[in-house]
Amino acid sequence: MYKVLLSWRYLKSRYIALASIVSVTLGVATLIVVNSVMAGFTVEMHDRLHGILSDIVVRSQNLNGLPDSEWHMEEIRKVAGDDIEAMTVTVSVPAMINFRDNIRGQWITQPINLIGIDATTYSDVSEFEQHLLHPLNRDQMEFLLRENDYGRGRKGKFPVAGWARRRVAAQWEQRNIADQIENGDVTSNDTALITPPPFELVDDSQTPAGLPVLPDSIDKLPELRGLLDNGPSGVGQQGSLPAVPFQTNDIPQLTFDAATEQHTGIVLGISICSLRGRDAQGDLMDYYFALPGDDVKITFPNTGQPPKAVSDSFTIVDFYESEMSEYDSSFAFVPLSKLQNLRGMIAAETGVASVSAIQIKLRAGVDLNMVRDRLQMRFPLQQFGYQIQTWRDMQGPLLSAVQLETTILNILLFLIIAVAGFGILATFFMIVVEKTRDVGILKSLGAPSRGVMSIFLGYGLSLGIAGSLAGLVLGLLFVDQINVVAGWIEKVTGQEVFDPTVYYFSEIPVVVNPLTCMWVVIGAVGIAVFASVLPARKAAKLHPVEALRYE
Amino acid sequence: MSSAYKLPETKITLGAQQSQFDQAAAPVVMRAAGLMKSYRKGQVEIPVLNGVDFEVSEGEFQAIVGTSGSGKSTLLHLLATLDQPDGGEIFFQGNRIDNLPAKSRDILRNRYIGMVFQFYHLLPELSALENVLMPLMIRYGFTKYMLRRRKNRQRAKELLDKVGLSHRLKHRPRELSGGEMQRVAIARSLIADPQLLLADEPTGNLDRQAGDEIMEIFRDLNREQGLTVVMVTHDDVIAEQADRTIHLVEGRVQTR
Predict the structure, then answer these.
(1) In terms of CB atoms within 10 Å, which end of chain B has fewer, N or C?
(2) Cα angle at A57 between A51 and A62, to 5 degrees?
(3) Torsion of CA A350, A351, A357, A363, to 10 degrees
(4) Residue A98: which residues within 8 A CB-CB, separation 6 or more?
(5) Is A364 part of the contact surface with chain B (CB cutoff 8 Å)?
(6) Omega before A306 cis (within 30°)?
(7) How far apart, in whole angstroms, are the C-alpha atoms of residue B200 and residue A512?
(8) What are the angstrom distances between the C-alpha of A155 and each of A204, A286, A327, A366, A504?
(9) Contacts of A226 (CB under 8 A, 6+ apart)
(10) Cβ-defined contact of A446 to B146 (cutoff 8 Å)
């Protein structure tokens, strides 16, 4: 009884103890905030890293790939059949993409990772579809150009794309050719030299669903001026244009009509042909070199020995935006059969097409590494030469770097609480010295040493509990309001805490892990109690006669 | 404890009839034989008690008188089992107590021997009432104390009333005068109904008037309730109020 009473009274009458509480509070709050933000980052990053990757990939390093995908899939099912949710085959080759900057007219070349996928099954193994721009493609992906609406539902502005763009662009081109032939700049056989059409980019993001605002013909373009945000203003030729009836083609054409036809579709990572930057006002803006509806040229190796370069034209049918810059700036997806065909991967005699990788999605909760190890046993490296990796393995260095960072940060922050612990230790020694006479009195009244000790232990415990609970509340409040706080910091310092041109998110992701919070609180209370053990023992060991003489 | 609780009540009548204490008739409460105690100061060993014999009977009011440094306080601490002698034996109600384990000595101090000090030794964070209740708080665990809380507080209030402090229940020690603090300390020493009260210069820090009031209380306790009191003092005038006085000189008892 007296232990509780005295602990409480000492707590109430010693304001120095408040300093210890505050240091514990700050330590706990910091740990919780940092852990939540780090967990938020990690979860966000895992999501993005995993985004368009499947759980496990069995990849052949051979250019010819896996010769018989059916047999391999059968074997994989035998090994891990119960754990597999879906499987698909892909062909991936390093490739080069060429496209024309639709404003400056220059050709741009970039290295890409070209992946042939089966549109229906690929989204079963990854979240590929969810990252596509066009709302319809997000439901069911097709390698066909859509009419419009690419920017619908997107946060930022997005120019008019799709058929709406393709038709107008084709019209521009035809008019340009006509103009330049008329002017005698080029001959009609020499159309490749023609400068590209400077084409307006119209914001499509605010378009109401299903009602595409698109210019049916080039004549209507000026009316859309008001909507224009991106790109340079158009040239002053629109008014003098002859109306070209491009929608109706009665005569079957042998030549490719860009206004009504598309090449094989290709889905590009959004960063392959766009840049993110700031406009004159400092607002965030995207600059697109090419858009869905534009044609690109892809060059990649075939399966010849030695391989030769193969080129073909593709029409961009959609972008995907996984918000993982590594993926967004390198992956391009084309139909599997087309790629197999172009690369000569279909055996002439049997008609069996080889693939370069098998992508596997496992059921939720299945241990990836275990399945990977089983597959590695089934397909030994020496015999098959397959690379079998989980998505974590592919991003191993990055993930382990973040893990290391979190661990080190936690150790450092726990040292803060340890410092608070030493503060408690020092404060308690002071209090014990100050209370020496009280200890003598209590002992003379028959209080056992243990009881005296538990007064000070209880004191430390209540300091620890009060401090960590306050820290828990403070930390959780901070985490809850972190974006507001970041906003204030931005206002005060004039600097953005998270630059969206660098980070893909505008809000700081946070994940509060109750278990982590619990451990932090337990740790802090533990340190407070531990710090009070020495002073409490000192108090308990005091000799009553000497303690009573103490003045 | 119930028998110890009843003990003083039977003696109220006894004490009222007997104005003069009859030493031969009363049983011995505490006895000490050949007590030795010395303190170390660096390398030198300073003897404080050199074989002190001591005896106090039930209902007796005994004074130990000595100059400062004569070892009278040390003797009292040994009797209260706050310290342990280097040699000799102490008996309380016939049982040897100087060699008991710490736990038993704690219980002894808590229940059977009350103490009053020169500097009052109240706990500054607690009110007068809480200070008086402290021995009971130490004796009982949390739940057990709470169960008999009302009874305990009633008893503490009675005691404070007896020493004339019923208007000072909620006051902290620093809000009380020296005499008032000493009266709180006396009430605290009585709450456990001890069989022996040890007082270490209880008036040493008080002016004449306050000292007399305190002595009055001790005398009343001794006469009306038959409480055995052993008081250490350096003041012969105060010692004269006791039934018996022993003189301590250089760690030995001098009988006059």
Answers:
(1) C
(2) 130
(3) -100
(4) A107, A108, A109, A296, A297, A298, A299
(5) no
(6) yes
(7) 62
(8) 11, 12, 20, 35, 12
(9) none
(10) no
Are the C-beta atoms of A10 and A435 separated by less than 8 Å?
Answer: yes
> What separation in angstroms does the CA of B22 have from each of A551, B9, B56, B199?
41, 19, 12, 22
Please report, in tens digits, the pLDDT of each residue of chain B (256 residues total): 333 333 333 333 333 334 455 656 678 889 999 999 988 888 888 888 888 898 999 989 999 998 887 888 889 999 999 988 998 999 998 889 988 888 899 999 999 999 999 888 999 989 999 999 999 999 888 888 888 999 999 999 999 998 888 888 899 999 999 889 999 999 999 998 999 999 998 888 888 888 888 899 999 999 988 899 999 988 888 888 888 888 988 888 886 5
Residue that is written with structure tokens 């004339």 in the block: B164
CB spacing of B121 vs A444 below 8 angstroms: yes
The kind and range of the H/E element at B75 are helix B72-79
B102: nearest CB among A440, A442, A449: A449
Q: Does A15 touch chain B (CB under 8 A)?
A: no
d(CA B99, CA B96): 7
Q: Which residue of A has its CA nearest to B190?
A: A445
ipTM here: 0.87
Task: Tell whether B123 is within 8 A of chain A (Cβ).
Answer: yes
Q: Which residues are CB-neighbours of B179 under 8 A, at least 6 positions away?
A: B206, B209, B210, B211, B213, B214
CB distance from B213 to chain A under 8 Å?
Answer: no
Closest listed residue to residue B32, CA positions, set B233, B235, B250, B196:
B196
pTM passes above 0.95: no
**Residue among B196, B176, B177 at smallest CA distance from B116:** B196
Fill in the amino acid letter for A422: F
Hey, CA dihedral for B231, B233, B236, B237, is it positive or negative?
Answer: negative
